[in-house]
Design goal:
1 helix, 2 domains, 8 strands, Immunoglobulin-like
Length: about 130
């Protein structure tokens, strides 16, 4: 009962595939439009994380410490050990590292749109490893 495909059959198959692809696109677009965090897809809201990094023993500022939130948002501390970094809103982890100091556990912060949050209660304290 099988018969060879005609050009009309092939044309119909192409139209069905095209409509299937269009349906998949519309489904994806509808899903993205209803996404609970639309900032994750397109335009994001930002807030600011700030802090001060100091030596655990002397309480002196650590200039040039590397501060990052994720892999895209990075800044170095100024001569006073202070940093300020604009990052996307939401739960974020602040990482701080400096030469000659032990790696600090990530600091969890909640960044709110157009607001500034402090990383650490007063200052972020790094402990010297004794190696420069």
């Amino acid at each position: 009962m099988d018969r060879p495909l005609t050009s009309a059959d092939r044309s119909l198959a192409r139209r069905i595939r095209a409509f299937s692809a269009l349906g998949a696109f519309v489904l994806c677009a509808t899903t993205l439009a209803r996404c609970a965090t639309p900032g994750a897809i397109g335009v994001q809201d930002f807030g600011t994380v700030q802090g001060r990094v100091v030596d655990g023993k002397s309480n002196q500022p650590i200039s040039g410490a590397l501060v990052n939130v994720g892999s895209l948002y990075t800044v170095r501390t100024d001569p006073s050990g202070v940093f300020q970094l604009r990052v996307p809103t939401g739960d974020q982890l602040v990482m701080v590292q400096a030469n000659g100091y032990a790696q600090l556990a990530p600091i969890a912060v909640l960044v709110v749109k157009d607001m500034t949050v402090n990383a650490g209660d007063s200052a972020i304290t790094l402990q010297s490893t004794g190696n420069p």
